[in-house]
Amino acid sequence: MIIRPHYMNALKTYRDVPLVKILAGVRRCGKSTILEMLKGDFMKSGVPEDHVICMRYTSEDFDDGMTDKDMYGGIKEKMKDGGRYYLLLDEVQEITGWEKAVNSLLENGNTDIYVTGSNSKLMSSEISTYLSGRYVLIPVYTLSFSEYLDFKKADGRTPKELLPEYIRMGGFPIIALSHFDEGSAYQIVEGIYHSVITHDITRRHNITNFDLFNRVVKYVIENVGKTFSANAIVKFLKSQGRSLSVESVYNYLEWLEKAFVIYRCQRYDLQGKAVLKIQEKFYLADASLKYCMMGFNPKSVAAMLENIVYFELRRKGYEVYIGKNETKEIDFVAVRRDERIYVQACRNLPEESDREVANLLEIRDHYPKYVVTLDELAAGNIQGVRIVHLADFLLREDY
User: What does each C-alpha distance from 162 to 151, 292, 327, 392, 396 come to in angstroms?
Assistant: First the structure.
């Protein structure tokens, strides 16, 4: 098993803190494996094996009729004494009212609780008052480039040799652990995508016109990293002889977001210092989700370069926005406490360098500014703007 230190370190920070630790992310991004790693860590630190209780709540493993009381009772009966118990509860969102059971276990037992899930019932907007102020949310993403290198260490290839493969194949651990060709890899990712759509969206929201929903999804996937509106999607569907309301489009986007398939990136006005509610962009949980649906196209790499940079900034704990500086756009404004960095992502230099660098130079502050590129020959500093290859940017510990 290949350890993912970023998540293990985060969980160690909160060990034995009286909060429920919630690991949330798209299906198959590695949440269950992180729980297995955590169990091994507990055992190494001397926790008796029978005091680490692991429960998995997938719909395949139990009857749909399981209640929060059943969940609570099933765990309590495994707690044989008054000692400290570590509860590792996988895919809890399948249980209606799971928060009530977990809250009771937190209040009435000597417990340290960790849960995982892959849909909106694990997001703060939908967690009920039972856990209000009593949990910490740890987002889990597919593999970073650094983690991908760990998975591929035995190959003996350099980071820059593995980068094109990472861009094409994405970061789902099941793909990185094996040596699939492109076709097989995309077939597996497509299966993950359909599992998300079936379990976390279609069934939950009773979508009856799957064809229409799928057309909206494909529109979003084709326009990753571009600004578009619900009205634009409605007009596009109308041109195809399909009818859908703006409200329905908003619902579809929200459901995709709550299943961790897409992530919303809002626009930040650098002059007015305000987050704007218009011209948002969406990024995919993993680049392979686009390629499994549309096929790999070298022309799409520029947009997916943005996608990769966006998630690397998220992994490092930044809040990430699109920057608006009067009429100019900055790909990313990343904020973490009192830190800030600005990032432009472009495939090739020098053709694009003048515009990318000029946009950054118009920002009159002292925060670090980067142009991230795939150009092998581009590196250096232009009037304080750092030109960095994507591989080097992804492998920096900090900025």
Answer: 11, 20, 37, 13, 16
CA 94 to chain centre: 20
**Confidence (pTM):** 0.93
Q: Is 281 exposed, middle or buried (0-12, 13-18, 19+ CB in 10 A)?
A: buried
What domains, with CATH codes, occur in the chain?
Answer: 5-139 (3.40.50.300), 297-399 (3.40.1350.10)
Count the neighbouring beta carbons within 10 Å of the beta carbon of residue 298.
9
The dihedral through the CA atoms of 144, 147, 148, 149 has a sign that is: positive
- The per-residue pLDDT for range 159-176, each reduced to its tens digit, is 999 999 999 999 999 999
Q: Which H or E run includes 378? A: none
Q: How far is residue 190's CA from residue 5's CA, in Å, rounded to a whole number?
A: 28
Q: What angle do CA 54, 56, 59 make, to 5 degrees?
A: 170
Pair 394, 314: CB distance under 8 Å = no
Please check whether residue 342 is in contact with residue 332, taking contact to mean a CB–CB distance below 8 angstroms. yes
At 49 the three-state DSSP class reads helix
Q: What residues are paired with 276 via a beta bridge?
A: 267
- Please tell me the distance from the alpha carbon of residue 69 to that of residue 79, in angstroms, as a whole number: 16
Q: With contact defined as beta carbons under 8 Å apart, do 102 and 96 qualify?
A: no
pLDDT tens-place string over residues 266-279 = 998 888 778 877 78
